[in-house]
Amino acid sequence: MFSPGRLVLARRRRGLTQAELARRAGVTARRIGDYERGRLEPDRAALGSLAEQLRFPLNFFAAPEPDEIASGAPSFRARKKTTAIKRDAATSSAVFAVEFNRWLESRFDLPEAAVPIIDRVDPEIAAEMVQASWGIELKPTTNMVHLLESRGVRLFAVSPEDAEVDAFSLWHRGRPFIFLNTLTSGERGRFDVAHELGHLVLHSGAAELPSQEAEDEANAFASAFLMPRTSVLTHMPREPLTSQIIEGRAIWRVSAMALTHRLRDLGLLTGDHYRSACVELSQQGFRGAESGGIPRENSQLLTKVLRALRGQRISLADVADELCLPLEDLTNLMLGLSITAVPGTGAGRGFDARRTARRPRLTPITPS
Q1: Are the C-beta atoms of 53 and 25 separated by less than 8 Å?
Q2: What would the pLDDT profile of 275-298 be if each residue is shown by its tens digit?
Q3: CA 102 to CA 327: how far, in whole Å?
Q4: Which residues contact 22 (CB under 8 A, 6 or more apart)?
Q5: Strand pairing partners for 168?
Q6: What percent of the chain has pLDDT over 70?
Q7: Whether 185 contacts 293, CB under 8 Å
Q8: How far apart are CA 49 and CA 63, in angstroms?
């Protein structure tokens, strides 16, 4: 059995065109096109060559046709600056995340999705509505990753080679997914999570690619969610000094520049004071990675999953074999979110479904 869609998926994951794959595999581009359209089925030698060039196990190409994620579904930022090949590579990795999540849900009781969809509402109001529906007080959120995992959002990492696509999110069959660039700062990571939550809440029904207006709305949502109006008005004075902004960022665990923009939006910084604050912060090195910044937030859910599997002597390599995926691609989904390399876990035992017959309930603790 040969799955044409699997060949397309593997090629796109490796960032190759049909012509590039054909050149590496020693066949014509037309032949690759025939394989991908199901007009021809590669013989064992040809399939072996394709698998070797794409760095995928042979049984990957015999698995059922993969889930399809529409090209317009992911909320990629700077879409015009990112090539279609890079977007396809990241989307292909998202397909692996969907398959891995299905595997997890068949073996563990994971939190159900509880992300409200709110259309045509001001982002500030939408953020307050989400917080109200989740029973969250209008105060700083301790850990955004843990919070969203407890509400059924599945969070995975963007592979290092796809870092230029930045973070993105999508809905797939009623399940919200967020993919994070885990190479950024802790403050940026928190804002990315809140930004993608904004897309999930505000733009889930959008059939078209996200516009700049949608990006602006997601930024406004993230700012309001991380720095609630009443909390900022309580803690920050009008026209604060730059030193007060730097000190205040620790309250909401955001960057100094993000807090500065929020102060402007709330009318606490106006005109020349806002511009002067931006210039001073930039001169002091607060426009990029900030000194004294916070560590990145890790996944509580993935950590619990890996610990449970380790207790059953099932390694990540066993899981990759079960899913017919390269271990590298599966590991990259958790890179920077959880410790994935644990010595002596399941090595050499192979996967045994009986070891996961029980379905432990993994419930992330909701941060205060």
Answers
A1: yes
A2: 999 999 999 989 877 777 899 999
A3: 17
A4: 28, 29, 31, 32
A5: 179
A6: 89
A7: yes
A8: 18
**pLDDT tens for residues 164-186?**
888 999 999 999 999 999 999 99
Largest CA distance in the chain: 72
Residue 304: name the closest of 336, 339, 331, 333 by CA: 339
d(CA 271, CA 360): 55
User: What residues contact 254, with CB distance under 8 A and at least 6 apart?
Assistant: 187, 190, 191, 226, 227, 262
pLDDT single digits (tens) 112-128: 999 999 988 999 999 99
154 with 97: CB under 8 angstroms?
yes
Nearest CA-CA partner of 9 in 100, 131, 92, 97: 92
Q: What is the DSSP string of 293-322?
A: PPPPPPPHHHHHHHHHHHHTT--HHHHHHH
Strand partners, 178: 155, 169
The tens digit of pLDDT for each residue in 18-54 reads 999 999 999 999 999 999 999 999 999 999 999 999 9
CA 35 to chain centre: 31
Residue 321 to residue 79: CA distance in whole angstroms:
34
Structure tokens that stand for 137 in this block: 């007080």
Q: Which residue has the tokens 């900030």?
A: 290
User: Per residue in 237-264, pLDDT tens?
Assistant: 999 999 999 999 999 999 999 999 999 9
**pLDDT above 50: residue 68:** yes
Q: What is the pTM of this model?
A: 0.91
Whose structure tokens read 């993969």?
66
How far apart (Å, rounded) are the C-alpha atoms in residues 114 and 134?
A: 8
Strand locations in the chain (E): 154-157, 168-172, 175-180
Q: Which domains does the chain have, with CATH numbers?
A: 1-66 (1.10.260.40), 67-226+298-338+361-367 (1.10.10.2910), 229-284 (no CATH)
Contact present, 242 and 279 (Cβ < 8 Å) = no
Q: Which amino acid is at 242?
A: T
